[in-house]
Write a structure and sequence with these properties.
Elements (H helix, E strand, L loop, with lengths): L1 H14 L16 H18 L6 H15 L20 E5 L6 E3 L4 E5 H6 L3 H16 L2 H9 L3 H8 L6 H7 L15 H18 L4 H14 L8 H4 L6 H9 L15 H9 L29 E6 L2 E6 L2 E4 L7 E5 L3 E4 L2 E4 L2 E7 L8 H14 L5 E2 L4 E5 L2 E11 L6 E11 L2 E10 H17 L1 E2 L1
Parallel strand pairs: 1-3
Antiparallel strand pairs: 2-3, 4-5, 5-16, 6-7, 7-10, 8-9, 10-15, 11-13, 12-13, 13-14, 14-15
This protein binds zinc ion.
Length: 459
Amino acid sequence: MVGTVLAVALLGPATGWAQLKELRPGWNLFSAEQDVQLGKEAAAEIERQAPVVHNRELDDYLNVILRKLEQSRYARTLERDGRRAELYPFTIQAVYDKNINAFSLPGGPIFVNTAVIQAAENEAQLAGVMAHEMSHVVLRHSTNQASKRNLIALPALLAGALAGNSLLGQLTQIGISFGANSALLKFSRTDEAEADYNGAEIMADAGYNPLEMARFFEILEGKSGRQGSLVQFLSDHPNPGNRAEAINDEIRRLPRRAYVEDETGQFSHVQELVRHLGAPVHARGNTGEDGGSAAVPAERPSGRVRSYAGRSYSLEFPDNWQIQGSRQENVVTLAPRGGVLESGGQTLVGYGLEVSYHDTQGRPADLERDTRDLVQHIRESNADMHVGREARRIEVDRKPAILSTLYSQSPYRGEQEVDVLVTVARPQGLFYMVFVAPQSRFDSVQATFEEIVRSVRFQ
Ligand SMILES: [Zn+2]
C-alpha cells in the first residue's frame, strides 16, 4: 500500500498538475461560519438597497454557470490539513446597473451588474468574472482584510458575538462595513492576483477557457480609458500589474483541454434578454432621499407642442417636456421636469413617455406575438407589475396597433403607477411607446397621451 501511494506522489509532477499553485486563505479572525453569517446579512442589506433583478430566466442561467464552477475543487477553501472544505453556500444575483462591476460578500453571495453581461463577448468571459468573485470568497479576502485592519477591536467582538444577533450590526458599530462600496470590497493587488489565479483554475475545471478571463480584463482596460464608459470593476479589482500575462503563464501549466466559449449555448439569448430589462420596480421608493420620497411633478403639460424625429418616426409632445436620449440611442424619453428620477444609481421614468423598438431577433415584427413578448419582458423585470384591462386594438398613423395597460408601483411617494403601452409592427422591429404616470395624475394627462399617439407619423 505504501508503495502505491509513493508511486502516485512521484508521478505527480510529471503530469504538470503539481506545478499549479494551491492557494490558501490568509490569516483570519473570523470563522468560516462567521463569513457565511456576515455575507447573508450583508446580502440582505444589498437586496433592500440595490436594484436586484428578479428574472427567472436570467437567474436560472447564472445559476447554471455557478453550479458548473462549483464542481471545481478550487471552489472550496483549502484547509490547513490539506483537505478542501465544504462548499460555501454560493448565490448569484444580477444587479440592474450600467456600470461594469461585480462583487462578492464573505461566505458566498455574488452580485454581477447587468453591464457585465452586456460587456462580455461570450459565456466564458462572464464565467471568468464569476470564478474571480468566487475566489475572493474561497480565499476569504474580505474577512482577511478586516482581520488585519482591526486587530484590537475584532477578537473581543467576535468572541462575544451572540448567535442570533446581527454580526453585521455589531461590526458596523466598530466601523467595519461589508456593504456595497465598502472599503473591504476593494481588494489589494495581491488579493487580485490570487483571485485571478484561483479563478482560472476553477474555470478550467468547469470547461471554460481561462484565457477568456484575461481577455475580458483587457476589454475593460480598453473601455476604461474611453469617455463615458463606466468600469468600476477595475477600481474594485485593480490590475495586479500583468494580469493577462500572469493568466497566460498559468494556462501553460493547466492540463490541455478542449474549451468552448458558450457551454450552455444560451449566452446571446440571455444577453438579449438583459438588453430589454427595465429597472426593477421593487427597488424604487424604498430609499430615503432620492426617488422614493420625490413628489409628483406639479407642472401640467403645456398646450404648445414640439416635434421629435426618431428612427423612422416623428411625433409631437408638450413643449415643457424634456428630451433624454438621442436618435442614435435606442430609447428616447420625453418627460416633464421631475418625471425622470435617479434612484440607486439608475434612471427611472415615473412620469412621461418612453419610445423605442423592441428587438424581434431578425424576424419581421408580428404585432400580436411581439407585443406579448414585450409585455412578458416588462413583467419579468418588474416583480410587482400586473397587466390591467384587456388589450385594445387601435390605430397609429393608420397602422394597426395594440394598447395594453399595466400597473406597478410608482417611484413617487405613496403612488401606484399606470403604464400604457402602445405597439406597432414596423420593419425596424416592434415600435413601442410607454406612457407612464402616477395613478393620481393619470386622468389629467390621458388627453396629452392621446394627442401624442395621434401625432405619430412613420416614415
Ligand atoms: Zn477581484
